[in-house]
Amino acid sequence: MKKSFVYFMTNKNNTVIYVGVTSDLLKRVYQHKTKAYKGFTYKYNCDKLIYFEEFNDINQAIVREKQIKGGNRKRKEYLIHSINPEWNDLSDGWLFYFD
């Protein structure tokens, strides 16, 4: 069974929180960091992974993403602080090997 993830990205000043869903967290974070797509995270320089949750099913992840997106910033900050109170880049030290 393939894992899925809900994840948060932010910029260097932590002023923007992007919420996304993916079935390949490593690849998706790499895409954000290299600005592979000219969307929201490109526009707001969101290249820091600050939170993620893992799921066994993509449908569960999508439901959770919608639930989180329906909340306010304070709720998102609460989730971040629960596992990453200093808002460190959780992908620091990850090796990205993509062609």
Spatial strand order of the main sheet: 2-1-3
Distance from N terminus to C terminus (CA atoms, Å) equals 26 Å
**So, CATH architecture?**
3-Layer(aba) Sandwich
Largest sheet entry: 3 strands, antiparallel
Category by helix and strand content: alpha+beta
- Tally of domains: 1
What is the overall shape?
Answer: globular
**Poorly predicted sequence stretches spanning 5 or more consecutive residues:** none
> Helix count?
4
CATH class placement: Alpha Beta
Average pLDDT, rounded to a whole number, is 94
Radius of gyration: 13 Å
Q: What is the oligomeric state here?
A: single chain
Helix and strand succession? Answer: EEHHEHH
The CATH homologous superfamily is termed GIY-YIG endonuclease
Number of beta-strand segments = 3
